[in-house]
Design a protein that fits this description.
Structural class: alpha/beta
Distance between the termini: 59 Å
Number of domains: 2
Number of helices: 12
Number of strands: 15
CATH architecture of the largest domain: 3-Layer(aba) Sandwich
Shape: globular
CATH class of the largest domain: Alpha Beta
Order of helices and strands: HHHEEHEHHEEEHEHEEHEHHEEEEEH
Length: 366
């Protein structure tokens, strides 16, 4: 039946409603599929890392059907709002981003590691997709690869090119990112396996987590006691990814938390007082905070011609913001060889997946 005849048969009241709503549908769908891809923060120490990775990320996101914000307008927005740390966005900046660029989503992330060794390069990335209207973390992931991850036998298959490995790392990072106009969600996780928890060095869990669990949680900056500069930031980002993928809590976007800490005038590092907790509770409506420490962090890069296994030692604790009491604590020591089954099968060779595994196993005790 022709559309004009179909509309002619509709009651006038219903027709009036349709005429109001129909034009809004394409606009809403367009905003839901529009995304601002911010330059990833560079924690790798390599000046070339972001320049190499961003074009690959842009193409991969477009291939999933997202309409990217114009780079020129995005750069102007970042300059106008004096946003230097593009690895995180506050709720204020997200609202402005939606209003000025008409995007519904923003992707932020960081390059944790880029080692362009000719024999065995290594990449490590983490990313989050944020809702522009609410600041909620809708999706998060971390990925890392070395050239040796593709070795089959007798050295065959090894990727020796940094740019080529970058393509595979971006693929791994965005593997479970939904296509445009599909619901963004974290992939379901299985229940923790007891054998995975044998490496937990120490843990404590308050009974109050059963009777009165927190609804909204913030991850504070991790204290870095390792020799690797920037390790605290790397682990904090990946820990936030692991917490988001666990799906148990509403998580305060790190950019919103940073904005609140600046407003309060504090920079907690390894500890926090009751006064600051009360101020955070009021500003970001948080029920609990997580603090952590990086005790050891080694990326397994080549030394004297031979690569070592990556290793990490981290601890984390959750504080109730009302009382300041510790309601949960756990520490994990993990080496890339700990998962080896036979020969090199099961070995974790890249740093980011190792940290993600350590963080996930720590959180399995929460």
């Amino acid at each position: 039946m022709p559309r004009t005849r179909l509309f002619a048969r509709l009651p006038r009241a219903l027709l009036a409603v349709l005429l109001v709503l129909v034009p809004a549908w394409p606009a809403a769908a367009q905003e839901a599929a529009s995304l601002a891809l911010l330059p990833f923060e560079n924690v790798s120490g390599s000046l070339e890392a972001v320049r190499m990775i961003m074009p690959l990320l842009e193409q991969a996101v477009r291939d999933r059907g997202y309409r990217l914000a114009d780079p020129g307008r995005l750069d102007a927005f970042l300059a106008r709002n004096r946003i230097r740390n593009t690895g995180r966005l506050s709720r204020t900046h997200l609202t402005a981003l939606q209003r000025e660029l008409g995007v519904g989503l923003a992707m932020v992330g960081s390059v944790a590691i880029f080692n362009d060794s000719a024999g065995n390069p290594q990449w490590g990335l983490s990313a989050r997709v944020l809702a522009a209207d609410s600041g909620a973390i809708l999706w998060a992931a971390g990925a890392g690869l070395t050239g040796d991850d593709f070795t089959i036998a007798l050295g065959l298959g090894t990727i020796t090119s940094g740019p080529r490995l970058a393509e595979e790392t971006v693929k791994a990072l965005l593997r479970d990112l939904a296509r445009a106009r599909e619901p963004l969600a974290m992939p379901p996780r299985g229940r923790p396996v007891l054998s995975r928890l044998f490496g937990i060095k120490a843990s404590y869990r308050s009974p109050t987590l059963e009777s009165d669990p927190p609804r909204r949680v913030a991850v504070l900056p991790f204290e870095n006691l390792s020799e690797r500069k920037g390790a605290g930031r790397v682990v904090e980002d990946i820990f936030t990814v692991a917490l988001a993928r666990q799906g148990r809590f509403e998580i305060v976007e790190p950019g919103t938390l940073s904005e609140a800490l600046v407003a309060i005038g504090v920079a907690p590092y390894g500890n926090i007082d009751l006064e600051t907790l009360a101020a955070l509770r009021q500003r970001v409506e948080v029920d609990a905070v997580i603090l952590g420490t990086v005790l050891n962090y080694s990326e397994g890069l080549k030394r004297a011609g031979a690569a070592t296994s990556p290793e990490v030692t981290l601890d984390a604790r959750m504080l109730d913001v009302e009382t300041g009491r510790i309601v949960w604590f756990a520490e994990r020591v993990l080496n890339g060889d700990d998962s080896r089954i036979a020969m090199h099968f099961g070995t974790i060779k890249a740093m980011v997946p190792l940290v993600l595994k350590a963080a996930s196993e720590v959180l399995d005790t929460l």
